[in-house]
Write a structure and sequence with these properties.
The protein is of the alpha/beta class. The protein has 19 helices and 20 strands. α2 packs across α3 and α12 runs parallel beside α13.
Amino acid sequence: MSIRIAAVVVVPRNRKPTAAMAWLLAIFLLPVPGAFLFILIGNPRLPRQKRRMQALINGYLREANDILERGGLRPNEPNWFSSLVRMNRELGALPISGDNGVHLISDYQRSLDEMAEAIRGAERYVHIEFYILKSDASTDNVFRAMEEARSRGIPVRVMLDHWANLSKPLHRQTLDRLSEMGAEWRFALPLQPLKGKMQRPDLRNHRKLLIIDGEVAFLGSQNLIDRSYNVRGNIRRGLKWVDIMVRLDGPVVSSVDAVFLSDWYGETESIPDIDLREMNSGSGDLDCQVVPSGPGYETENNLRMFLALIFAAERKVVMVSPYFVPNEAMMAAVAIACSRGVQVELFMSKLGDQAVVYHAQRSYYEALLEAGVRIWLYEAPYILHTKSLSIDDAVAVIGSSNMDERSFGLNFEVSLLVRGEEFVEELRAVEDVYRSSSTELTLDEWRKQPLRSTVLDNLARLTSALQ
């Protein structure tokens, strides 16, 4: 009884009502396990020392704004887009820049090979930050390029999420190869209590970034690993990940580099002597804004951007997310868009690689279909891992962020906002390929699912609010 009484006092404080109710339900049903779980993962905030460093990082990014606002912007910018850019910047994003080249890479191995080729052209430095980073047959070209850069005396700095890599095959071999080549590498958000490095264990750095010389950058959803993730069960089932990356050149590269440098400072308390210098125009004239998000910010930057874009759409919204577990605000935005006559499409995988999230997202299918959303399920044995949002004909977002509570509040993510018809046309072509490889889910078909599946989906849905 004392645990339940204490929970009523402690749990709701500064917490979303849905999250508070989920935690209270867990603690009231299972007081001891529920309280233990709450103590372990109930605090979505960074430790005090990390918060202090994050405040310095946010200050660093704000100071960088003046030197990163470069390039001529496209004319006839809609008022809503100007407001969106301003909101992003107020919440912690980097400024918008013009005259950028942005090119999609939707082939998994080709993106790895293009990253390797860019690294081979490095003259000053290479910065690599991936949620999962492994030395395997698919990524060997990238690692050989890193080794060649180091042999020429080029600094190579690498960040990889600690927990995500610790639990995957080839972990020790990867670290050994990084050390042997002479790369400076650090874990992001390490769980090393004996070294005084500890926080909520499921806070993760989910970003995927590569920057070469401050001139070229890559960003997107793909991890630096074989598309099977080298997991025996995935290989046995034939699972292969489908991802998308963008290659960037122009002034926006400095903004991507600023995100890497801020993360590097967060783990090393030092910043390499790198000048985010004046950049030449890129190979295109696209307007771009880099939007970092995560538990180091006061607000859910990515969620607010997604909501603003959905509300701004006049004709079409296309969302691609492997893990789509919306909160009430996003569900309302999608339903309102449909009622305004906006065509809304959602792409996800028919198969799931994470059971709880897979069943939680299924619990929203009926409401989405009833609202008028067209749901496309990407056929097995592929896991559609791309994360994108496009509206109408001229604006899109590509990045690392899923559309679920974890990506909104618990993961460090990075998104790229792009304005330009030619880029959206390029993304639409990729969406068409996804559509041709998918099956549309209908409301009549969905209502035929067995009761046991509905129960399982709804139980999983309750866990999505535990943050």
